[in-house]
Amino acid sequence: MGNLFGRKRRSRVTEQDKAVLQLKQQRDKLKQFQKRVGLSLQRERALARQLLQDGKREKALLLLKKKRYQEQLLDRTENQISNLERMVQDIEFTQIEMKVIEGLKIGNECLNKMHQVMSIEEVERIIGETQDAVEYQRQIDEILAGSLTEEDEDAILEELNAITQEQMELPEVPSEPLPEKIPEASPVKNRPKPELVAAS
User: How far apart are CA 122 and CA 1, in angstroms?
Assistant: First the structure.
């Protein structure tokens, strides 16, 4: 039982995933560095202006040289960030390509197994048997059709014509004359009831 619950699960994180994560972390650190240097440059420029106003030209010049060096650092940092992002994209795209290749490999193996089950010879044999069966049935049909004589064919056509005539026959016209029109009897008129005379 201890082995069942103590067994480690295989991590789904690949080496490529770890590499991508590290590259993204480095990129984020460089961006934070860029932000800090950018704020520092703004402060140093304001400080250099103040030093010039105070007449401290040498200090202002030294501060501006330091600022220029930091600007060059920013440019190099931007290039490094661009390289890191390109590398992350390349790795991620390569992972997608690997999945596509793996899918193609599985599909190819599946097709090969199917081809082993049904070879070209097997397909040709099945088609040949099907054609033989169709030909055999055609021969049976011809034998059955040939077993009828010309008299049988005539009798069949005569029966077909008789059935067709039955469906088309009109009802017979009666041979006896139709009865004459009987005069309608006049309805009996209601006689008026005698009035009852009231006794006085």
Answer: 51
Distance of CA 25 to the CA centre of its chain: 38
Output the pTM of the full model.
0.44
Task: Report how far apart, in Å, the C-alpha atoms of 158 and of each of 69, 129, 137, 143 are.
Answer: 116, 41, 29, 23
Q: What is the DSSP letter of 169?
A: P
Rg (CA), the chain: 55
H or E element at residue 66: helix 57-117
pLDDT digits (tens, 9 = 90+) for 21-38: 888 898 898 889 888 888
Distance in angstroms (rounded) separating the CA atoms of residues 72 and 62: 16
Q: What does the alpha-carbon distance between residue 184 and residue 195 come to, in Å, rounded to a whole number?
A: 33
Rounded to an integer, what distance in angstroms lies between the CA atom of residue 25 and that of residue 84? 10
How far is the C-alpha of 194 from the C-alpha of 200, rounded, in Å?
A: 18
Identity of the residue numbered 156: I
pLDDT tens-digit series, residues 81-129: 888 899 989 988 988 999 999 999 999 999 888 877 777 888 888 898 9
